[in-house]
Structures are given as C-alpha cells and as structure tokens.
Amino acid sequence: MRPWDSFESALRAIVANKLRSFLTMLGVVIGVGSVIAMIGIGEGTKKKSIENLEIMGSNLLTVFPNWRRGGMSMGSDAGMTLRDSDVEMLKREVPLIKNITGTVRQGVMAKHGNKTHSTSVFGALPIVKDIRNLNKMLEGGWYTDEDEVFSAQKAVIGYQVWQELYDGNNAVGTNIRLKNQNFEVVGVVDFKGGSGMWNPDDQIYIPLSTAKTRLMGKTNLDMIQIQATHTDLMILTQGQVEDTLMKTRGSAMGEPLFRVMNQGEAIEQIETQTRLLSILLAGIASVSLLVGGIGIMNIMLVSVTERTREIGLRKAIGAKRGSILSQFLLESVVMCLVGGVLGIALGWTSVIAISKALQVPPEVHTPAIITAFGFSAMVGIFFGLYPAMRASRLQPMVALRSE
Amino acid sequence: MKPILEVEGLSKDYVMGDMVVHALRDVSITIHEGEFLAIMGPSGSGKSTFMNLLGCLDRPTAGKFVLAGRNVAGLDDNQLAEIRNKYIGFVFQQFNLLPRTSALKNVELPLIYAGSRNRHAQAMAAIEKVGLAQRAHHKPNEMSGGQQQRVAIARAIVNDPMVIFADEPTGNLDSRTSEEIMALFQELNRQGKTIVLVTHEDDIAHHCKRSVRFRDGRVVFDEVIENPIDARDKLSQMPDLEAVEYVPSGARKKSVAADAPA
Ligand SMILES: Nc1ncnc2c1ncn2[C@@H]1O[C@H](COP(=O)(O)OP(=O)(O)OP(=O)(O)O)[C@@H](O)[C@H]1O
Ligand SMILES: [Mg+2]
Questions:
Q1: Pocket residues for ligand 1 (CB within 6 Å)?
Q2: Which residues in chain A (188-227) have CB-CB distances under 8 A to chain B?
C-alpha cells in the first residue's frame, strides 16, 4: 500500500462525516488558536513595554524621592526632597555620569488658537534631549543653556501635542498658552512611539528654571534623570549614585529616602514578568489543546467501532496491520493538522484584533506557528495511536462477524 | 489436475468459558485446480468455519493445511494477509462493500493493498467481466442486491486469485438473481477459476461439480455431481426476462434496459 492511498482513504473518511469531523477538529482549532493568541499577545505586550522603556533611553537612571520609606509620619519632608544641590553633587562626584538634569512635571491644559490639549509640562535642562534621546526633530531645535539661564518662555513640543494643537501646520515661531502664559515654540520632536504616563510624544518640554519659578512655583525637583557613560556599567553607576546620595538623603536609620530606577533592570523585570505570564497563558491554552486531543481520541475510538466490519473486510482482502494502522493514524493526524491550520488562522486573527484593542504590536512569530503546527501533529499521533492500534489488531474473522 | 488445497486432520475448537465447541473435527480433503465445490450441511455444522480456515481468515486448532504447496499453519498475520491478497478472493453473503464508495473504487481495493500500478484498468476489466461497466461509478446504495454482489465478485477476481471462496453468496438474493450470480460463477469456473461455495440450498449446490456435506464438524458426504444445472439454460426458461440485466456469454440476452446509463 502506497502512502498516497492511505492518505486518500483518511481524507475520504473525514469528508464522509463532515459535521462530526469538523466538531472534532474544533477542539484542536481552539486549542492551537489560543496557544498562538496567548503567546502572540504576551509577546506583543512585552515588546511594547520594553519599547516604551527603550524610548526613554537604555542607559537612563531615574532618581525619585522614596515616598514609601519617607512617609508622612516623618513629619518633615526635608529628607526626601531632591534639590538642585543633589544634582550638582552627583555631577561632581560620580564620574560615570555623562549627563544629568533635575526635572519637574505638571499636568496642564495647553492652548493654541482655539485648540486645547490636556498634556503635561516637563521642566528640564536642555541636555534632556540627550538623556531622553529626543534629538530627532520634526521642526526647529531645542531651547539653549542661555534660555535656561534667563528662564525664557520657550517650549519644545512632542509629536502628539503638535498633532493635537497644530493639525500638521508649522509650529515653530508661534505661541502656545500654558496656564495663561505665552510660550514660544522653538521645536517639535519627531515621533517616538511611546505610550502611557511617560509618553515622550505627549509632553511639552520647557527650561527647568522657567518651569520651577514661572510656571509651577516649585523649589524641589520631582526627579533627577541621569545618562550613564556606559550602558554596561549601569549597575556600577547606580551604586555610585546611591552611595553619593546617601550622604545627604539617608534617613536617621540609614535607609535611603530616594529610589533609583535603572532602565535596564526594569526591562529585565518586564521580561521575566511577561515570560511568566506567557508560560501561564500558554499552559492554559495547552490544556484546551489537550482536551481537543481527547476529543479526537474519543471520535477515533467510535469510528473504529463503527467501522469494524470495514476493517474486517479490508483485512480479508489483504490489508496488513501496518496499512490499517496508518489509515486510522493518518485520519487523526490529518484532522489535527487541518485543525492546526485553522487554529493558526484563528489565533493570528485574534492576535491582530486583540492587539489593536490593547494598542500593542501584533506579534506572531514563526517559531510559535511551527510549534503549534508540530504540536497538533503530535496530538494527532498521540491520541490517534491507541484507536489505530486497536483497529490494526482486530482479527479479520471477528471483525467481519461484528454487527 | 493439480491439487491447490490439501487439508489433513483439520480441527477448530472455540473455547467459550468452560465450554469447548468443536466446530470442526479432523477434516481431510483435497481440492484440485478448476474444481467447483459446494459445501453443504445444516446450520451450525461448520461450513463457514471450514471456509474461513481455507481462506486464511482464521487459524486452525490442529491439522495441516497446504495452499499451493505451502503450509499455511506457521504463518503470521501479515503473511496470511499477503496470501489472502494474492491467492484468494472472497464473496460474502452480506456483500461487504464500502459504502459511499463507487463500485470501481471498491473493486480497486485489493489492488491498493497489493500495491499494483494500473489499478484503474484492472478494476475496470473485472467490472466488465461481471457486466457492470455502466455502473462502475455508482455507489452501493444506488445498486440492487444482485448488482452489489456482482461488484463483490469483481472485487474477488480483480487480483486473479487461485481460488474464490463464496459463503452463501445467494443467501440474500431472490431466486432469479441467485441464478444470475450462479451463471457468473459457472462462467468464471469455465474460464478456469477454482471456486468453493458454501450453501444450504440443494438447488444452488446442483450448479457445482462436486458437493461436500458437513455434519457436526465432520465431512459426511463427498460426491461428484453428475449433471450439474447450467444456469444459462435455467435463466432462459425463466419468465420475467424484463429484469435480466446481464447474462454471461452464451445465454440469450433479451433485454438490457435496466443497464442503461443512469
Ligand atoms: N466465534 C465463535 N465462537 C464460538 N463458537 C463459534 C464461533 N463461530 C462459530 N462457532 C460455532 O461453531 C459451530 C459451527 O459454526 P459455523 O458458523 O461454521 O456454522 P455454519 O455451518 O456456517 O452454519 P450456518 O449455515 O448457520 O451459517 C457452531 O456451533 C457455532 O456456534
Ligand atoms: Mg455459515
């Protein structure tokens, strides 16, 4: 018996019972589909989170006041504020710092002409363009150190702000109003593609001194952002920053009143978290694939019982064990593979749909598809083997006599 | 004539719990090439059991059984399957055709397991031999019982077997259709096929050349039939010739209306 003949008879049997075959396949379709969808969405979420962090700069350290440790119970906030003097000290004492700026941030309603847009103002030294990797301009340039010294009312706007307020028109040279003060737009940063609270596209950057004194009336800093000289020395840099800050910002009990967030570390954290999530989701999806496999086995057993006479007849006219085995095995494998292909299509479509809803990039990797396909073939073989063996072992006489 | 089936001391016991059924006891018989043998006997006398053993569908409890000079006793399942495929053709009382599968595909089945090429032409030739060329692409449920049995006979002869075993092939057919089937068997026998046919109808048995009678698992009678009935003659005397679809060469063909393409 040649392979094509086994394949043809398997297809025949599947087509002969269209509805039943389809319902049986459905288990595999859903199983494979959900494996693909779960992995795809997990991967997409991870990629997005990492992108967001990388957009901010991969050699970035951010220092926050440690609200949790400081706490209101301390009565005084003296210890847990960050000031310009801390920036100066860090710049002096940590040689691994390439660039550093204190920053303040506040939500505002920005106006231009008759358009308004709710966004946030980010006060920082002009060097923030290097620290946060905001050098690529759509239009104009950055405010200067001179603007910083004179607390100039100048602003650089993010891509999304520009879209909302300018509708594609030139922004440089025009004014926007923030809290009833006019700011001259000197530059528009090109699209970065971030999202969430720190979305660099939805931000207005102004000189730090202007932000503190003229716009927000703050004396303290909200955070300090540092660009390290070497990406591979982030941990060391972080340690030095922490040691230096402890001199002025340690609590009486010797605990830090600040927190340093390391971008690389955050990426790692996200990776492990999403990996765990992916494994969990894939695990749940695998269970449905398993259930699909059991469905296949069930139907194949029914099919063998129903077709006992046919098996007897085939044996009587010369079918060997192997021929019967491969006929039934192929039937379940073909069912699983067809189910697998449909499942991949289903999974892919759901990844695209769900990604759109979650605003994450759709991630369907070839390995995931190959794995799902191979997995469904294995399910077919594994769950088809026992029924096929049962069929192949039937004695022709016994099989022919069955009702 | 050279012997193609030699059986010596063949026994078959069925064990059912504490009970042992001796379905066949110490049967010895020789069948020669070109014979047309009827196996007769009351129900439960062991006819089917005997035929299934000769057809290598089952294994004997004891005894020697040589098929075409080869002792079959020691062969394993796959070797027996090969022997059935190459040397033996089966015709059953319940035609045992694959449903939802055309006559042609049904007839091709033994060729598939033989791995032969050119299956289509071989199967078509066998279907033509049984006079069903125009029904080749019909499915079993679109055919009459007689037609289905003829497809089964085509399937039995497609591999050009040494011997055909037919277990009550006319058991589910009316007398006229039975006669047509017997005419077909006689024609095949005239062409040189050895045929072993199980029946409990004397009338059917009289179409054969030799009859063997079983009782309680033993051969009690083995005789040559002097003047076998020629099915062609009998068919020509039957009144309702409208229903005749096919009569082997030699017999008068009155009507082929029923065989017109659908
Ligand atoms: N698989 C089996 N298990 C147990 N006993 C069996 C089996 N097959 C046949 N027998 C017994 O063996 C004996 C012979 O059976 P067999 O089928 O050969 O009879 P038969 O002559 O073909 O009868 P019939 O004309 O009714 O077909 C019977 O007593 C039957 O009950
Ligand atoms: Mg019988």
A1: B 14, 16, 21, 23, 41, 43-49, 200
A2: none
Amino acid B255: pLDDT: 42
Q: Is A117 on the interface with B (CB under 8 A)?
A: no
Question: Which residue in chain A is spatially nearest to B80 when comparing CA positions?
Answer: A318
pTM value > 0.80: no
Extract the residue ranges of chain B whose pLDDT is less than 50.
250-262
In a domain, A196, yes or no: yes
Residues 6+ apart with CB under 8 A from A186: A140, A141, A142, A143, A154, A155, A156, A172
Which residue's C-alpha comes closest to atom 30 of ligand 1? B44
Residue A252 sits in the same domain as residue A117: yes
Interface confidence, given as ipTM, is 0.88
CATH topology of domain B3-238: Rossmann fold (3.40.50)
Q: For residue A119, tell me if it sits in a domain.
A: yes
**Domain range spanning residue A387?**
3-52+268-401
A38-54 pLDDT, tens per residue?
Answer: 888 888 888 877 777 77
A132 lies in the same domain as A227: yes
Residues A375, A286 within the same domain:
yes
Relative to beta strand B163-167, strand A203-206 is: unpaired
Q: Do A129 and A242 belong to one domain?
A: yes
Q: What's the number of domains chain A is made of?
A: 2
- The nearest CA of chain B is from the CA of A321 a distance in Å of 7
Name every chain B residue with its beta carbon within 8 A of the beta carbon of A319.
81, 113
What Cα–Cα distance (Å) separates residue B144 from each residue in B148, B231, B234, B256, B259? Answer: 6, 20, 21, 15, 11
